[in-house]
Amino acid sequence: MTDLPGASDVLDLDSLLSDDERALRQKVRDFTVQRIKPDIARWYEDGVFPVELAPELGELGVLGMHLDGYGCPGRSAVDYGLAAMELEAGDSGIRTFVSVQGSLAMTAIHTWGSEEQKQEWLPRMAAGELIGCFALTEPSAGSDPSSMATTAERDGRGEDAGWVLNGSKRWIGLASVAGVMVVWAMTGDGVRGFLVPAGTPGVTATPITQKLSMRASIQCDVEFDGVRLGPEALLPGAFGLRGPFTCLNEARYGIAWGAMGAARDSYEAALAYSQDRQQFGRPLAGYQLTQEKLVNMLVEVQKGTMLALHLGRLKDAGKLRPEQISLGKLNNVRQAITIAREARTILGGNGITLDYPPLRHAANLESVRTYEGTDEVHTLILGQHITGLSAFR
Length: 393
Hints:
Helix 5 packs antiparallel against helix 6 and helix 7 (242-276) packs parallel to helix 9 (322-347). The protein is built from eleven helices and nine strands. It has three domains: 13-126, Orthogonal Bundle (Butyryl-Coa Dehydrogenase, subunit A, domain 1); 132-240, Butyryl-CoA Dehydrogenase, subunit A, domain 2; 243-387, Butyryl-CoA Dehydrogenase, subunit A, domain 3 (Up-down Bundle), CATH 1.20.140.10. The protein is an alpha+beta fold. It is globular and about 80 Å long.
């Protein structure tokens, strides 16, 4: 499944993939090795998102990968998952860009937009010519979007009436470089979605700095001060929280795969280091304590990858349920963090440098663990499923 060194694909997961799926995985893996891994340490240290990769990722065919029409690749859920896994083996920030662009912003337009909106935005977004963002989270409403304070009020009367948008959003990925924002706001009819083009007066996006995680990525504070929008800005098909939650489930699915890419890369780095590093006259890999760590990492990478593949097959069959996505996101991110941290211990002091990826992956995964539903939120989703009782409040 993962082409790990030696006999590391113990379960022969690779045999569960088609030739086309393996070819797609190899194509994205080659891109990651050639375009991400050589520069990721510098991007991470400098706190820079390589925006120049956007059109290259479009050409690679991973933007809006699971969507059909309008220039979108129209690939399967498993294809998208394999791509997410390979990209996150490079860095969570790069996979997050693909997720925000495709699973969040493009999915919102593709699922809930008008034909005119789809024609206007999706082809350029699929090509990476235009970047989108997804503005849901607020300074006081992260895990509880029903408490959002951002409002959109009618600007006039009749069908031609526009909207006035006011409020704040926080931790909005790519907002400062986005050509279009998908903004969720409370209206008299509940939560609705709006498309806000770049340069609209009254919109201010400020990158959040001094981050200890996701440094090769952009997250912003966004302010909306009397932003006037025409009637064409409204996503006509989105009513209530079902609109953003549909998009969030797409992103959560991709995370279940992506986290295993970071975990696998951490494991591979530790394995290679342990085979080369000599201590007390023999390789670190020859000691029982090291082998136990490597085996524990491998077991969880194999299990997590198999789980992600099962979710992908369910999704392609139209049978994937939200609680199954929650189980995948909760388990795989939690295990990936454990693997990255354990891999760092094999690297010793060298592991705290950017010469090696595990600690960078571990830091990034703290963000991945938090966004698109915290551990606690996914625990409560699963708890409600198995007991029939909601414990959110």
